[in-house]
Amino acid sequence: MTGPGPGKIPVKDAKVVLFSAxxxxxxxxxxxxxxxxxxxxxxxxxxIEHPGLNExxxxxxxxxxxxxxxxxxFVADFSRYLKGVYVEMSSRTLRRVVRPGESTxxxxxxxxxxxxxxxxxxxxxxxxxxxxxxxEPSPRRDAPGV
Length: 146
Known about the structure:
The protein has one helix and ten strands, in the order ββββββββββα.
């Protein structure tokens, strides 16, 4: 699901820059913490929604990528899938998920209107804690797979 919806918490301070062979491109992307059990989400994940991402990541494509925490947020390196393509995410909110100096592997999926990042368990817990602090609904424990 693209756009706002139940269980999708907007990350309002997120700035997204896509780097590719054409150079850096600032995207006016919407970024959401999408909680498990809401709007058909099977796991809590991060949505980055901008139609320009589908040029590189068509819907229903998926791969694994490295995410590295930075002082300003994180960098998702998609070079294993597309040489020289990566996304830089600046967000004071999200830098608490992948902390500066940390590195992890994420599952990246193309969807209509953008991509989603599926994190490992410890990072999912951080996303859910962050959502709770933002005063949003907690993950539904009656969701499929629980």
